[in-house]
Amino acid sequence: MLASQVKGYALLTAIIVAGYASAAYLSSTLDGIRPQLSVGFADNDLDIVGSRIKGFAFGMEGLVADWYYMRSLQYIGDKILAHKDEIVDLDDLRAIEPRLLYPLLDNATSLDPNFLGAFYYGALVLPSIDGNQAISLIKKGIEHNPDAWRLYQHLGYIYWKLGKFEDAADAYELGSQKPGAPPFLRLMSGAMRTEGGSRATAREIFRQMYDGTDDPAVKITAERRLAQLNSLDERDAMDAVLAEFRTRTGRCPASLKEIMPLLIKVRLPAGNEFRLDPAGNLADPTGAPYILEADECRTTVDAKRTGLPSR
Question: What is the DSSP letter of 288?
């Protein structure tokens, strides 16, 4: 009897071991032949649609909306950190394939349609992923908050970002008619119709965006954009001086320090001034030294050290 039980246990053990070995072999084989999927497929689809559970969260909709919003912030941060390339272009986040950002924000704003911060964040980030999604989200915000003039400001920004200056002008004009709207919205509407693609218009958009919010994400974005515009002005001025120097001397300067005396006479837009780093080099607004490209005799930023957007 005992011998029979021992034989039975031994057979069962052998079967289990063989099963594990077969499973391990099969898993290894499948991993070897599985096609390489893009990073977007690593995301698990959301199991819950916010609009379907609204009213069934026992009065906790606002708390759940906050959770989805915080998850959207973490989601983008994790995607950037996990990206294989060292530098992520914040103007074009399609490379990190953040396909769940819109569903996360859509859930947050479906649960709490008055969650303006979530709408504002989407207006800033989604245009670099999918312009149509950005427009859809902000129009959803306007539908539920028709008197919130900042939503029209952000809609105008999205259209401007997409190069749709007439649509941007209309959005700013509609926003200017809302209660408490500042005069600059009407001015922006006119600017869009006359010089929508100009640097001066861009500077005004981001300056008003920075001054008009307490949201850290909005302020950081606007601040980076203003720094980028200032850098473009500085590089234009330096390139003009380099061209003048080259015409006069027949050569490109050995370094940018050679043209510093000539830059003293230059007046930059918005009352800005050139700056130097601790080593005495001309530096961009983030403190990274500018680089002289001798072959073309023009300036550029140090892509590895600057904190400026890449485009």
Answer: P
